[in-house]
Amino acid sequence: MNAQIPTSTAPGLHQADFIPAPGCQSPHLQTLLPRIMSRPKLKTTLEWLATPDHDWVELNWYGLPMPYSPILVLFHGLEGNQRSPYIISMMQAARQQGISCVIMHFRGCGQYDNTQAQSYHSGATADARHCLNILSARYPTSPLWACGYSLGANMLLKLAGEGPHPLMRLAAVCPPFELGACADRLNQGLSKGYQRYLLSPLKQKTLHKYRQGLLPETITPDIIHQSQHFRAFDGQITGPLHGFQDANDYYSHASCRAFLPDITTPTLILFAEDDPFMDPACIPSAEELSVTTRLEVSRHGGHVGFIHYAQGLRHWLPKRILSFLAAT
């Protein structure tokens, strides 16, 4: 991209000012570096939040909410949790600015299994909306901000475009704008390694629910084991479990791209052209963005990587995201 970088809050499609650390331009290195960099184990407070359908999600708080101070709600990626490096780096940066953070774990991604056959998927916004409404009612003087990553970014953008919500500002990192294209990209070349890594825990969790007798008869261990790529897994497991006909039906209804024009909240989207999970052809045009949305695209960054050099290897995302969320 050759666009000039305007003011930090101007909407539209822009070039990100991310510069990768020297020698770290590779998309795979950017993607993997956060997992091998040192990270502390943060002491968080667990809250179990009941859902209207008699299940529950786990919230982990880092810092107690204070009146008139923002609360930053975080939504992790596929099979992520509070130990994910991008969550830890964001929580640390936010607390340094006196901002309370809470991560909502998607069903089954926290310390404990959820109780129903259904867990979560890229377009499931009901739990997040329920959580945000509860927090808004509980802390009426605290502005609510949110940040989602990968699957959580897709979910958050879809939620923002669906209709009213209590968020004041939000950010989304590396959203799969088109889930079908993302599934196809992960089934190509070196990206197949990420696909195997992500599918393994999903299949194990599904097998566990089968042994508990929670799954319909149509989902058998053979079907679970034979799902070697996302289109197969989503077509035979994710889709049917959540009311979709097949993978294409799920992808078309759950992808956030169609919801972008309807977002009315100040929104920052960060994306890397070399993301090994994504097809760069899926990057939305400026015309697809709402007047409140700013999309910054970087040439490098990998998938939720964005590691730069600042007296050592550092996470670039938290500073950029917090500067946007705190802007007036």
UniProtKB/TrEMBL annotation:
<feature type="active site" description="Charge relay system">
    <location>
        <position position="275"/>
    </location>
</feature>
<keyword id="KW-0378">Hydrolase</keyword>
<dbReference type="Pfam" id="PF00561">
    <property type="entry name" value="Abhydrolase_1"/>
</dbReference>
<dbReference type="InterPro" id="IPR012020">
    <property type="entry name" value="ABHD4"/>
</dbReference>
<dbReference type="InterPro" id="IPR000073">
    <property type="entry name" value="AB_hydrolase_1"/>
</dbReference>
<dbReference type="InterPro" id="IPR050960">
    <property type="entry name" value="AB_hydrolase_4_sf"/>
</dbReference>
<comment type="similarity">
    <text>Belongs to the AB hydrolase superfamily. AB hydrolase 4 family.</text>
</comment>
<dbReference type="InterPro" id="IPR029058">
    <property type="entry name" value="AB_hydrolase_fold"/>
</dbReference>
<keyword id="KW-0719">Serine esterase</keyword>
<feature type="domain" description="AB hydrolase-1">
    <location>
        <begin position="70"/>
        <end position="307"/>
    </location>
</feature>
<feature type="active site" description="Charge relay system">
    <location>
        <position position="150"/>
    </location>
</feature>
<feature type="active site" description="Charge relay system">
    <location>
        <position position="303"/>
    </location>
</feature>
<protein>
    <recommendedName>
        <fullName>AB hydrolase-1 domain-containing protein</fullName>
    </recommendedName>
</protein>
<dbReference type="InterPro" id="IPR000952">
    <property type="entry name" value="AB_hydrolase_4_CS"/>
</dbReference>
<dbReference type="GO" id="GO:0034338">
    <property type="term" value="F:short-chain carboxylesterase activity"/>
</dbReference>
<dbReference type="GO" id="GO:0047372">
    <property type="term" value="F:monoacylglycerol lipase activity"/>
</dbReference>
